[in-house]
User: What shape does this take?
Amino acid sequence: MIMPRGQQLLMPVRPAFIAFSVALVFLLSLLPLGGFVWMPDLLMLVLMFWAMHHPHRMPMSVAFLLGLGVDVQQTALLGQHALTYVLAVYFSQRFSRRMMWFSPLTQALQLLPVFAAAHVLQMLIRMLAGGMFPGFSIALAPVLEMVLWPLVSAILLAPQRRAPDADSNRPL
Assistant: This one.
């Protein structure tokens, strides 16, 4: 068996759609939303999604440059987000072949440690640079990212689920 039963065959993704989705979420991350520690990092979610589904089209250099952009915008320690984005993309690419066999809900459960490690790493970098402990509400961000993972997966895979030609006799 090549594909799990019941899974729909996807059309190839367009590189312009990957660039558009990453750019849109990057612009959304630049909005001043209050800077709550429990806010999920949507840019990290989208970067991890594309790194998992198309590892050859999401290089770590893109994650690094976008992380530097977020660091500059949030006046964070330079390299803080860049390091966490690169590590998140690395682990997504590393485990992509195994993770593709699971449903988005199961993927979310298995990615929870990666989400948590990214936020703990950011917190440790901030604290080593002289920042204060943000409180235990920081533990809510990885849980929210885990909850958002199936939604992000459904939205980003939607353009690939359409049939190439409208045909009532085609089973795809």
